[in-house]
UniProtKB/TrEMBL annotation:
Organism: Eudyptula minor (Little blue penguin)
GO biological process: establishment of mitotic spindle orientation; regulation of establishment of bipolar cell polarity
Pfam families: fn3 (PF00041)
UniProt domain Fibronectin type-III: residue ranges: 202-299
GO CC, one annotated term: spindle
Protein origin, superkingdom: Eukaryota
Sections of the chain in a coiled coil: none
InterPro entries associated with the record: ANKFN1, Ankyrin_rpt-contain_sf, FN3_dom, FN3_sf, Ig-like_fold
The protein's name: Ankyrin repeat and fibronectin type-III domain-containing protein 1
Annotated region (Disordered), positions in chain: 1-25
Length: 690
């Protein structure tokens, strides 16, 4: 029996893993294992919760340190450090609108030490004053308390340092004493800044303008005085009486990044008076009346009751297209179109995944004919085939019809990339006439479908405003599209544009480059054009210059290279609305009855627009290289204001009627400076719509 027990004990010991040789070794082993393989001892949920808890603690500690760093930077008047912290962290992360233990906010310290640059930086970031300061008395009492407590603490620490023998505790007390002495001086400086401050002066350049038929806009600048404390908010008041009795409303502006305010919900045709006052820690300053003193909400359309030009046009076109589709929906050729899945509209990442394969029909070289090429780019890279070629498909190898008509038709089709299959099948039904134009356009639709199928994407982008041609009879229609995703695609190569330009082996001579070589040489210019044509103007009223030139088969319009989807222009003002009174004055100026006054008249909204218009005309004439004395023969288009989405509007300046459109062979004595180009009128209209 004893022998059996010994055997069992030996067997059990043999089965047990070898353990640590001592209790201390066991502890060390547990610490090491728990550090390396903690996931084996904790469930995934518990581990993730613990990890999140630790991260949250670290985050809160980090943000607390950043909040303390901001207070310290403001107290030390370190503007660079304040700006760095405001740029690095959001207002919520800095939590700079929560008072510290002394009941102060960073903005309080900045304005009471009269540090205007730091105060403005905090105000623009959304900084506010402490809610503890409800009145002048409460602020004065709070500052006096801070000064008294700091002075008391300094006296206590001074006594302790003097009476105690030199040791470690004494050294620590000396550090505390220096810190409290510094804080005592800070509080005294804040108290003195508050006591010597005075209410702010009135705001300057308070300008009132009509924003719409039911609103007016007031803009203003800071007070000129530098002796008063920093302004932290403004108050806008409005009334139908010049005495502001009764007052109809008021608004307090505490976000000081942009000093303007729009008063909405007003009655059209009623005069409203507006005044603005400023506030600092000493209270509200005197109000400043606007210039002009009142404004009447209105819009230029009220002059003759004209309806918007494009009202209902988009809906009417959609309805018309729907009717056309309804007529053709029972055609046999449309059955595939009905069954076309919506999943056809792939995302760029998925659609470009299977971009090119051995059976694809992209061309490497051009023969005599008409071709379509699609350029997809991202930053400085361009999408190419495995053969490092820009994707090109053939439209027609026997092309001989008038190109411009077909090209302009193609640009209109580019507004309906998703409807290509339907359009192609409609043309299939009606192509029995076998006309050259119809055959060419059907081939264009086939080429577009082929390009879409090979790329796996419907939207081929924007058509470049002119085809690329060569002397061998090749014509390239170019589409451009920017890819803004950051994914990497399988079976696709993003190649730097400069590398593609240098590595391509030209098959033509420099004197007679092929259309593909010409495209590669000028591709940077085409990409720049594409990017610029998508830029939008900032809200405002603009003065545009309309200049046309005609050719045998087209009319072209003068546009700036930097913004080719807009006429040559200069900005008149930031308010896009023209009031009824202003439009009435412009109508009189456009007639022979009222000459243009040589000297400025009394300040009102109509005369203010006239002065702004004079400045804009001078600037525009300089821009397009026309002597100012010739402007006396120019006309202001007085039939309407061109409105683009309610935020941008245009007045048009026209040359004399004989010079609006330059005929072929006619010399234009005034050629614009560099930086302009001429677009086909239909291309310009499409770009404007985009």
């Amino acid at each position: 029996k004893m022998t059996q027990q010994m055997r069992d004990l030996q067997l059990a010991q043999a089965r047990k893993p070898p353990g640590p040789s001592s209790p201390n070794a066991a502890k060390r082993l547990y610490r090491n294992l728990s550090g390396k393989f903690r996931v084996n001892y904790t469930s995934f949920d518990e581990g993730s919760l613990a990890g999140r808890g630790e991260k949250e603690k670290l985050r809160k500690s980090y943000l607390f340190q950043s909040n303390a760093a901001l207070f310290e930077a403001v107290e030390l008047q370190d503007l660079d450090r304040v700006q760095e912290l405001l740029k690095q962290y959001s207002p919520e992360e800095l939590d700079f609108n929560t008072p510290n233990s002394e009941g102060l906010l960073p903005l309080d310290i900045a304005i009471m030490t009269n540090n205007a640059p730091i105060a403005r930086a905090l105000l623009q970031a959304g900084g506010k004053e402490s809610p503890h300061f409800m009145s002048l008395e409460s602020r004065s009492l709070h500052l006096s308390t801070l000064v008294r407590e700091a002075e008391q603490r300094v006296n206590e620490l001074t006594a302790q340092v003097v009476n105690e023998a030199p040791n470690t505790d004494c050294s620590e007390k000396e550090k505390q004493l220096k810190a409290w002495e510094w804080r005592y001086r800070l509080y005294k400086r804040m108290k003195a800044g508050f006591e010597h401050a005075r209410v702010p002066d009135a705001p300057t350049n308070v300008h009132l303008s009509v924003a719409s038929s039911s609103s007016v806009q007031v803009t203003f600048w800071e007070p000129l005085s530098v002796n008063s404390a920093v302004v932290t908010k403004y108050k806008v008041e409005w009334s139908c009486s010049p005495t502001f009795s009764p007052r109809l409303g008021e608004a307090v502006i505490d976000k000081l990044k942009n000093l303007h305010f729009t008063i909405r919900g007003l009655v059209s045709g009623t005069a409203y008076y507006v005044q603005v006052s400023a506030y600092n820690m000493k209270g509200w300053g005197p109000p400043q009346a606007s210039v002009p003193p009142f404004a009447i909400p209105s819009n230029w359309r009220e002059y003759d009751g004209r309806a918007p030009r494009r009202r209902g046009q988009a809906e009417a076109l959609d309805h018309l297209l729907g009717q056309v589709k309804t007529v053709h929906q029972h055609c046999v050729c449309h059955e595939p179109c009905k069954n076309q899945p919506q999943s056809r509209k792939h995302s760029v990442s998925k659609s470009l995944k299977h971009l090119f394969h051995p059976g694809s029909k992209f061309l490497k070289t051009l023969k005599r004919g008409l071709y379509l090429t699609a350029i997809f780019y991202k930053d400085d890279n361009i999408l190419v085939t495995h053969e490092d070629q820009i994707p090109v498909v053939e439209i027609d190898d026997t092309y001989s019809c008038l190109l411009m008509q077909d090209f302009l038709w193609f640009t209109k089709v580019s507004c309906m990339w998703d409807e290509i299959l339907w359009l192609r099948q409609c043309v299939t039904v009606s192509q029995s006439s076998c006309s050259c134009i119809l055959q060419t356009r059907f081939k264009m639709l086939l080429a577009i479908s082929q390009m879409q199928g090979l790329l796996g994407i419907q939207d081929l982008g924007q058509v470049f405003f002119e085809p690329v041609k060569d002397k061998q009879g090749n014509i390239l229609i170019v589409t451009l599209k920017e890819v803004k995703t950051n994914q990497t695609f399988e079976s696709v190569r993003w190649v730097p544009i400069c590398k593609l330009q240098t590595s391509r082996k030209s098959v033509s001579s420099p004197e007679e480059p092929t259309a593909l070589d010409t495209l590669l040489i000028s591709i940077q210019d085409k990409l720049a054009y594409h990017q610029r044509s998508s830029h939008a103007l900032s809200p405002g009223l603009y003065l545009g210059y309309l200049k046309l030139c005609s050719a045998v088969d087209q009319i072209r319009v003068l546009v700036p290279e930097q913004l080719p989807n807009i006429l040559c222009h200069v900005k008149i003002r930031s308010n896009p609305n023209i009031s009824r009174e202003e439009w009435e004055r412009l109508q009189k100026m456009a007639s022979v009855e009222e000459p243009i006054p040589a000297e400025p008249e009394a300040e009102n909204s109509q005369n203010h627009l006239f002065q702004e218009l004079q400045v804009a005309i001078k600037e525009l004439m300089t821009l397009v290289n026309i002597p100012l004395q010739e402007a006396k023969d120019f006309r202001l288009y007085s039939q309407e204001v061109l409105d683009f989405g309610g935020q941008v509007s245009f007045l048009l300046l026209l040359p004399p009627s004989d010079d609006v459109c330059t005929a072929p062979g006619q010399n234009n004595p005034y050629t614009p400076r560099s930086g302009f180009l001429t677009l086909p009128l239909q291309i310009f209209e499409l770009g404007e719509e985009r």
